[in-house]
Design goal:
Layout lengths: L3 E6 L4 H12 L4 E6 L5 H11 L14 E6 L3 E7 L6 H6 L2 H6 L4 E5 L13 E7 L5 E6 L1
Parallel strand pairs: 2-5, 2-6, 4-5
Antiparallel strand pairs: 1-7, 3-4, 6-7
Length: 142
């Protein structure tokens, strides 16, 4: 990994974290969010979606696997939740490869390890965890 940034924050600080991430990494197309259940992946993604002009993000697409949006700032945006995905073949069947390498503006992926070998080299990795004091830690790696 070339670059690593660390954040320690409270959930009430999520808006500032989203703004900082967008300022630093807006030129990166694929953002992968890794962390245990309840670590704040969806919460962070929903705030990022709001910051790029999506007024009513739908929440995590756990059952549909993907929500598609149009951002006035970035064009097409895809939010994948691959928790229920069974295989990379299933990901290929729903067209994830075309989105990862196509002309979408931003691709946000929860549970990305399930398609790790399909991801572009320029993927940004965001690792979220809950600390003992219930604060959150976010490590961003390029």
């Amino acid at each position: 990994m070339q670059n690593k940034t660390e954040y320690q924050y409270e959930l009430s600080d999520i808006q500032n974290i989203s703004i900082d991430l967008l300022n630093q990494y807006k030129n990166k197309k694929v953002w992968c969010f890794e962390g245990e259940m309840g670590a704040g992946k969806t919460t962070l993604i929903l705030d990022i979606l709001k910051k790029i002009g999506i007024e009513h993000p739908e929440g995590s697409p756990t059952y549909s696997l993907v929500n598609e949006y149009v951002s006035p700032l970035l064009g097409k945006v895809y939010h994948y939740d691959l928790f229920r995905l069974n295989s990379e073949e299933e990901a290929l069947d729903i067209g994830v490869e075309e989105v990862l390498y196509g002309n979408s503006g931003l691709v946000l992926v929860e549970w990305p390890k399930k398609i790790e070998y399909l991801l572009p080299n320029e993927t940004i990795w965001l690792y979220l965890s809950i600390q003992e004091d219930n604060s959150r830690r976010l490590s961003v790696e390029l």
